[in-house]
Amino acid sequence: MVKQSKTLIPKDSQCKYINMKPSTPSIIGLIKIHKQDHPIQPVVNWRNAPAYLLSKLFTNKINHLSPVPYAFKIRNTHDLIQNLNDNPVLPYYTLASLDITNLYSNIVVTETKIILTNMLKHQLVDSQTQQEIPRWYNVITKQNYFLHNKNIIVQQDSLAMGAPSSGLIAKIFLQHLDQLHLAHLTHRHHIINYC
Predict the structure, then answer these.
(1) Half-sphere exposure of 74 (CA within 13 A, CB side)
(2) What are the start-end ranges of the H helices in 66-162?
(3) Alpha-carbon span 95 to 92, nearest angstrom
(4) Distance of alpha carbon 124 from its chain centroid, rounded?
(5) b/e map of 160-183 (b: 16 or more CB within 10 Å)?
(6) pLDDT (tens digit, 9 = 90+) per residue, 80-127?
(7) 57, 79, 88, 180: which could form a disulfide with 75 (CB 3.0–4.6 Å)?
(8) Are strands 145-148 and 151-154 parallel, antiparallel or unpaired?
(9) Domain limits of the chain?
């Protein structure tokens, strides 16, 4: 895929994005000591995966070509406090916090590719790049496997844990959902503020 790049990777730089000694990503479990019953969080080491360097480059290119807007994102604690000060919480308000369980395994990869393609078109990215980025996306998202107890486990239609691009792809999908459903939910549930 790197060698097929016509515009995004200069010929003299292509070797920097090919993992010369790839190996199967491995999985370990980290204990979440801050949670009740200490559940185990699976962590995949993707650094030696064949598409690791391409995944990092993909993330950088998307952030440069078509950055995902901070529509409803809270950047840090200071940003949250400022948001709450700008929109005071009255006694009859109900506060809610949303958390997504198993985020990477619940992102629909095929739908997110369409969303990404539309983002690139909307940003008026050149046509060659509009063709290359989805091909990179296919390579990165199809390398979704890891080694556990000498068995290779393949995850179907989800994001690879440990891939540098997975966080960005999840953000693209979630912000699309926000934009798609927020107006209806705001009206239906009388939402005053959403972030």
Answers:
(1) 13
(2) 77-86, 109-122, 127-142
(3) 10
(4) 22
(5) bbbbbbbebbbbbbbbbeeeeeee
(6) 888 888 887 888 888 887 777 778 888 889 999 999 999 999 888 889
(7) 79
(8) antiparallel
(9) 11-189
